[in-house]
Amino acid sequence: MPVSFLAAELVREQIFRQMGDEIPYVTGVEISRFEEIDSGRVEIDVSIWCDTTGQKAALIGSKGARLKNIGIAARRGLEKLLDKSVSLNQMVKVKKGWSDDSRSVTRLGYSD
Prior knowledge:
By secondary structure, this protein is an alpha+beta fold. About 45% of the residues lie in helices and about 30% in strands. The longest helix is centred in the middle third of the chain and has 18 residues, at about 65-80. It is globular, with a radius of gyration of 14 Å.
C-alpha cells in the first residue's frame, strides 16, 4: 500500500474523529504532493473534498479551529508512522457531486 494512501487515510480518520456524524461521509481526501525534503522531513499537501460550501465551513470551523485540530492530530499520526518531521498543508475544496463521479472516486482511491 502506498504511503501517500496511508497519509490520506490518517487525515480522513481525523475528520471522522473531529466531525462525528456531521460531515465525514461526504468527504474525500487526496494527497496532491508527498515530498521527502531530506532524510528527516516530509512535506505533504492534502485536499479535502466536500459537496457544499456549508460542509466546507463546518470542516474549517470557527476561525479555522476545527481544520487546525484535524491537521495537528493527522500530522502527529503521520510523524509516528513515518518516523520523520511532517509539514501538512490542508486545503478544503468544494466539488458538487464529487462522490457520484466515478473518476473522482477512483482518483481518491475509494474504488476497487
